[in-house]
Write a structure and sequence with these properties.
8% strand; 2 strands; two-stranded antiparallel ribbon; 4 helices; mainly alpha
């Protein structure tokens, strides 16, 4: 019975990380697609914040990812989950920049991504 509970916990933790990654990437991509950084003005005591709808949805996704991340760092070892999530986000950002925004990836970018992937693999190797 305890083994079943461990599997459920692992699945739930995995799902939380996947949702975090999806929200983070959605937020980044939508903010960039929205094409503006927003405007903030204060006139006669009123605060006005203007942003495109796409950027606003991206901002909401990004805020959601942050809130979820605060839960994730409590569940996992910080020294494990922070480099893991950060590395995956960096690789996904590189891929999204190429596929969605048609940005050029330099050889340094490819080398850096390779180093990140190698680091993630090494980090997840079982210790003998």
């Amino acid at each position: 019975m305890e083994e079943i509970q461990k599997r459920r916990n692992f699945k739930m933790q995995f799902i939380l990380v996947v949702i975090y990654l999806l929200l983070t990437m959605s937020g980044l991509v939508l903010i960039k697609l929205g094409g503006n950084s927003g405007s903030l003005s204060i006139t006669q005591g009123n605060v006005n914040f203007g942003v495109s709808l796409i950027s606003l949805i991206g901002l909401i996704c990004y805020i959601g990812s942050f809130l979820l991340y605060t839960r994730i760092v409590v569940i996992f070892d910080l020294s494990y989950i922070t480099p893991l999530c950060t590395g995956i986000v960096q690789i996904l950002t590189l891929i999204a920049s190429k596929l969605i925004f048609k940005e050029n990836i330099s050889i340094q970018g490819v080398i850096g991504a390779s180093i990140i992937i190698i680091g993630l693999i090494i980090m997840n190797l079982k210790r003998a």
